Amino acid sequence: MSEDNTIWVEVRTNDSCMWRLKGDTYEGKPSLEEMQAVVGGSIEYLPLSYLASDIKAMVVNEEGVLNKLDPNQLASQQLSFGAGDTYIVGDALLKVNKEFVEKEYWFKEE
Questions:
Q1: CA angle at 2 for the pair 99 and 98, rounded to the nearest 5°
Q2: DSSP per-residue string spanning 67-88
Q3: What SS3 state is found at 2?
Q4: Contact status, residue 97 vs residue 5, Cβ threshold 8 Å
Q5: What pLDDT score was predicted for residue 34?
Q6: Which of 28, 40, 93 is nearest to 64 (CA)?
């Protein structure tokens, strides 16, 4: 899929499903300041090898574990099986294809 089909979405700790996200959506790449505001501090990009195939990028708070941020179950579910014991804390910012955050994507028949 083309790069034009991607968006950045906030996945908050209280979100329960990808098609009902409560945070903002960004058509273009958010600025550093916007990313820092979303995650609440210094940003860290997770390695692509940690991410599920539908996730193009994930930005988290670099010191989230040290600062004892709340677990982010929905963002953690977007990790690949190869991520080991990695889990996400605090709000996250994900780059995905637009249809990934639509209900129809999750209920389509193969």
A1: 15
A2: TTPPB-HHHHTTB-GGGTT---
A3: coil
A4: yes
A5: 97
A6: 40
